[in-house]
Amino acid sequence: MTEPGVPGSGPARPDPADLRTARPGRPAGTSSGSGTTTPGGGAPGTGGEAGSHLWPGDHGTLPAPARLALARLVRGPYLAAEPEPDTWRALLAHEDVVRERLADQYLDLVVDADAQVAFVRDVPAADAPQVVREVALTFLDTALLLHLRALLLDSSDGRVAISRDEAADHLAAYRRRGGGSPMDFSRQLDATWARLIESGMLEPLSGDRCTVSPLLRTVFGADQVAALSAEYVRLAKESA
To answer: Which residue in 133, 128, 173, 178 sits closest to 7, CA to CA?
Structure first.
């Protein structure tokens, strides 16, 4: 993800490259299970066993669940233990070889065992091609993401749901700062809401409610979140 400059003057903000490198994988989208096997055969971290071919002419060596984990990571935006527990277990059991296959595509695997989510990002090499598609963030996008992440971290069970109206209430201070009309703000919020759903940060429920992706626990580093949060709090106070 990339973050444009925050309108107005103020202290320096974090390097947008920090947000860009933290983007969960959606390519143009940790513990390792020791001593276990997965359905389809093959020891953890190996390429499977003879007889694991899934179709005529199949040259793959991973068992089906591990291939599915690899495909989900490449498709993005992330893989989570819920609602895909079998695929998650296959990733942990075959993590080493999945990392090798991703590295062949210039992709790095990030696994958060506590949050039980995994995603891919571009490898940190200057001469590597960009594989992960970036999503540019607006001012409102970032303000809402910071709020959602705070809600997620404060949740006792790691589950958070929010409605569009609740998001609008939180972002009202930034609407006053921008000086636009209520209609302009509503259109901007609609675009932000749609972008966060498309990127996987919000997952639709019924009506206008969405659940917050557990990925927000991992995708932004603590230092950059602290710097951005301080700046956004300052701007909100200026608008009060």
So the answer is: 178
